[in-house]
Specification:
About 50% of the residues lie in helices and about 15% in strands. It contains eleven helices and seven strands. The two termini are about 20 Å apart. The protein has about 325 residues and is an alpha/beta fold. The structure holds uridine-5'-diphosphate (UDP) and magnesium ion. InterPro entries: Glyco_trans_2-like, Glycosyltransferase_2, Nucleotide-diphossugar_trans.
Length: about 325
Amino acid sequence: MPDGIANVELSVVIPAYNEEAQLSRTLQTVAYYAQEASPRYEIIVVDDGSSDGTWDVLLQCAGRLPRLKALRLSRNFGKETALCAGLESARGAAVIVMDADLQHPPELIPELVRVWRTDAKADIVEGVKRMRGDEPWTKRIGARLFYGTLTRLTGHRFEGATDFKLLDRKVIDAWRRLPERTTFFRGMVVWLGFRTVSVEFDVPPRSGGQTRWSFLGLAKLALNAIIAYSAVPLRIVGAVGLLFLFGAFVLGAQTLYRKLAGDAVTGFTTVILLLLVIGSAVMISLGTIGEYIAAIYNEVKGRPRYLIREQISCETEGNEVAA
Ligand code: UDP
Ligand code: MG
């Protein structure tokens, strides 16, 4: 692997699932613009267990495109995992991630690379959607809701986020240190930090085939993302418990008052009070347990505690600092 790093400047990683319809065209275009951006490029396509002719298309393309590398997963693992596979075998000093359906315009590749080369601050050059193409309004609203919630829950900005990005080698190396199994690439990249520069683009309609996401698939991705990036849902339980307790006080006071005023059925007061007290106690305990689970979850993820962006080492002898 180390020998490759020197030779490859730009890797383009493309996950593909049942993309036979336009994959050949995509690769042709990507190769053209990648060549323009950096002659020392490679394209890595990950066939995510396609059930159509995607792999055959790749075999044909490999004959024409000498810088094409293809991986074929044993089954459909989902886009996030396919991305992992591609990123792990990418050797470039910069890695671009994009979709196979030309919704991430390859014309932008030279621009991403140019920004990365010229802007010393750019560790990540991110494609940000200007318009959500021809997406149906349900998906647009869904996306707005999802990214809005995620932004609020995690405190990181997600709006307009796409998987169309250029990542510097040091970001890739940092990303590889995140050991979790369930991955959400966009979220992980935000978590990593580093300097991000945005480049806007319009999302053209899908060039062929159909979207691979079902509503359920998207819902699952959303849930994964929220669980992976925030303990807020757990906290909500505790908060609801406190709210209940407050309610218990109010209702309890009222019931007691009625008891004293003498217009309550016998036993009613006790039942109400017990119900309220036990209810809120249970909720608060659950919330407390939730806090611990959140802490455990964080530990189990085993992420590095911090990541270093740059460092200047001094050459004092016998005083070497490990990175
Ligand atoms: N994809 C994949 N595995 C999957 C689903 C999708 O590798 O299980 C790839 C797909 O081939 C495409 C990218 O992920 O390159 C984005 O998928 P799609 O265009 O269907 O999603 P959308 O643009 O509608 O969000
Ligand atoms: Mg698409």
